[in-house]
Amino acid sequence: MDFKGIEIKRLGHAGFLLSTGEVRVYIDPFKIAFDLDKADIVLITHDHYDHCSIEDIRKIVKDGTVVIMPAGCQSKVARLGARLEMKIIEPGKQIEVGEIKVIGVLAYNINTHFHPREENWLGYVLEIGGIRAYHAGDSDFIPEMSNLGKIDVAFLPVGGTFTMRAEEAVKAALAIKPELAVPMHYDLSEGAKEDALRFVELCKKEGIRAEIL
């Protein structure tokens, strides 16, 4: 879809491509089943197989691709052997690549053990082409989501086992107040399209624009 001049494509699961036409940013590419332009920037939220997939990252990187990730992903990405520019980020830190700004934010579970807060795994706020996009990573609805500043588009998990459920994701959307909310993290090891549809329906009842990509 085109959102304010930025092309946004869901790759499946929690993976997305945001492109200005000149700069392409991939977030958590996984199960890529079609040919895509090479990445200028890749963002990885954490080292679980469905977010730090070396097989899929290999399909999109080129010499000079900047890969931004938490420290726990570095040894995996280094196996690619390409001339990548690897940058380590932590929650609260910011990295600029040309005109693109990447801010690391916390992502964690509150009531389960799958994504502990102390791991410092990530979501991202991405400033690209005049918009601010938020990718929540694998997270529940956490207090930090209320302090992200203006967000134009928010990618929120709805699967309900390893992340928040659709109903919790709606609460997150109400706290974040994006212009557009997009469900993710379903149709693989948790959740189904019905969860995404329920998220969209509940968001619309709350006056929030939400779409499945």
Explain the overall architecture.
By secondary structure, this protein is of the alpha/beta class. The protein has a single domain, classed as Ribonuclease Z/Hydroxyacylglutathione hydrolase-like (Metallo-beta-lactamase, Chain A). It has four helices and 13 strands. The strands form two sheets. A seven-stranded mixed beta sheet has the order 1-2-3-4-5-6-7. It has a six-stranded mixed beta sheet with strand order 8-9-10-11-12-13, covered by helices on one side. The radius of gyration is 16 Å and the shape is globular.
**CATH H-level superfamily:** Ribonuclease Z/Hydroxyacylglutathione hydrolase-like
> What does the average pLDDT come to?
91
Integer-rounded radius of gyration: 16 Å
Query: Strand order across the biggest sheet?
Result: 1-2-3-4-5-6-7
CATH architecture: 4-Layer Sandwich
Q: Could you tell me the CATH topology label.
A: Metallo-beta-lactamase, Chain A
Report the major sheet: 7 strands, mixed
The span between the termini is 8 Å
- Unreliable residue stretches: none
